[in-house]
């Protein structure tokens, strides 16, 4: 019997899913690294920029678990994702028209919460369309198209920003959002299996474990030792990683080493060009050997990235710095959701569980911007990069020790996904 993931109808929806990932790449995170450049060009201090970006991270952290549970329970995933896209564009438009402190804070709050809903929505639709046996490959394809979208968007943003100024970045975001909505409309709702989308056990005729309300974030993380370990590791990784790209762009712009639009776009392009083949390879590797080694490799790249950024004060440093970023992000983009789906298979709460892990990593991301901004303001950019690299190294040590001492698990045994 043919699996639903390879029927012609599902193949069409999977093609539009690739397009959705491509166009949402420039929308989901709002202005991303361009926000720091925009505010710095208007005279904002590095620590103030870090604080307002931390607010967005906190909003995303608080929203990820309930948004994931909402996606698990909803049978209108396409509508939720479309609404989130429109809301994010409205928040960005308000930020662009008046970059006062209050407007920036409000915009970051909306961006963080809506970004959490968009991430859960894409994962839910992917799980609903693709059979579990093909999930690793599809996650790699999703990430590759997402990074390809970032490359194209960053290149266009850099060129348009150089010609017309930073306001061209917002115009490009609006166009990408419209294209994403068009792709979303082309995904057939009947192709989304909502039981599979939340990780329910489809091999039995009894109601899934996840039929009731989603458990709390604390219970999700404490019920599985590996999920809790993964959450702590991601917290430390993002504490070291989240602020590195915007801080790297700010440091070069503040020192007068590069044009703001061109340099910021270049940092994104280099990283995303590396992420595309890395994500495709990670999907292939995970389907055969599992996810753990991918996570360890991603953790190894970040301390080296911090050392290079901290001690090589040159625009050319963006090549190794962002190549390492591409390796880490490309691997984690496939490994994190895939490993969570493996751990929570059959529970009916996959998206809520992924949201719980992302909530914990959101704590690290939110603290990263504030920590980096404070260190950069008080001790300089080099000290900030070194500190972020040290934090990332502690995440590598935590995960390595944790998996070495971890007893055998029941969930996912024999699949290769947890090796």
Automatic annotation (TrEMBL):
Residues 226-419 form the Major facilitator superfamily (MFS) profile domain. This is MFS transporter. The keyword Phosphoprotein does not apply. It comes from the Bacteria. The chain crosses the membrane at residues 49-67, 79-99, 105-130, 168-187, 227-249, 261-286, 293-314, 326-344, 356-375, 381-401. Keywords: Membrane, Transmembrane, Transmembrane helix. One of its GO terms (molecular function) is transmembrane transporter activity. Pfam families: MFS_1. InterPro entries: MFS (IPR011701), MFS_dom (IPR020846), MFS_trans_sf (IPR036259).
């Amino acid at each position: 019997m043919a699996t639903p993931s390879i029927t012609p109808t599902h193949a069409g929806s999977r093609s539009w899913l690739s397009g959705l990932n491509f166009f949402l790449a420039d929308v989901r995170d709002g202005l991303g690294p361009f926000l720091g450049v925009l505010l710095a060009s208007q005279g904002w201090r590095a620590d103030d920029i870090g604080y307002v970006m931390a607010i967005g991270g906190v909003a995303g952290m608080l929203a990820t678990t309930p948004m994931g549970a909402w996606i698990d329970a909803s049978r209108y995933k396409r509508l939720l994702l479309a609404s989130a896209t429109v809301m994010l564009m409205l928040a960005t438009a308000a930020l662009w028209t008046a970059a006062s402190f209050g407007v920036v804070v409000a915009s970051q709050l909306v961006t963080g919460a809506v970004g959490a809903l968009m991430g859960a929505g894409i994962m839910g639709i992917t799980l609903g369309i693709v059979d579990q046996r093909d999930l690793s490959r599809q996650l790699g394809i999703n990430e590759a198209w997402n990074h390809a979208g970032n490359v194209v968007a960053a290149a266009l943003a850099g060129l348009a920003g150089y010609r017309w100024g930073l306001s061209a970045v917002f115009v490009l975001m609006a166009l990408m959002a419209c294209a994403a909505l068009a792709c979303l409309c082309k995904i057939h709702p009947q192709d989304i299996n909502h039981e599979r989308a939340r990780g329910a056990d489809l091999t039995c005729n009894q109601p899934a474990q996840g039929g009731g309300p989603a458990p709390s974030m604390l219970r999700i993380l404490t019920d599985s030792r590996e999920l809790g370990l993964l959450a702590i590791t991601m917290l430390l990784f993002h504490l070291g990683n989240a602020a590195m790209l915007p801080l790297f762009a700010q440091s070069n712009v503040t020192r007068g080493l590069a044009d703001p639009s061109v340099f910021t776009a270049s940092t994104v392009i280099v990283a995303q060009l590396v992420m595309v083949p890395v994500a495709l390879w990670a999907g292939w590797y995970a389907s055969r050997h599992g996810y753990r080694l991918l996570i360890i490799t991603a953790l190894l790249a970040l301390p080296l990235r911090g050392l290079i950024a901290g001690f090589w004060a040159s625009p050319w440093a963006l090549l190794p710095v962002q190549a390492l970023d591409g390796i880490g992000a490309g691997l984690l983009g496939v490994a994190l959701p895939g490993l969570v789906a493996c751990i929570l298979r059959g529970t009916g709460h996959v998206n809520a569980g992924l949201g719980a892990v992302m909530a914990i990593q959101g704590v690290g991301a939110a603290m990263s911007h504030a920590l980096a901004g404070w260190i950069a303001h008080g001790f300089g950019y080099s000290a900030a990069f070194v500190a972020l690299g040290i934090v990332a190294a502690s995440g590598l040590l935590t995960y390595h020790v944790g998996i070495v001492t971890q007893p055998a698990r029941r969930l996912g045994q024999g699949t290769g996904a947890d090796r």
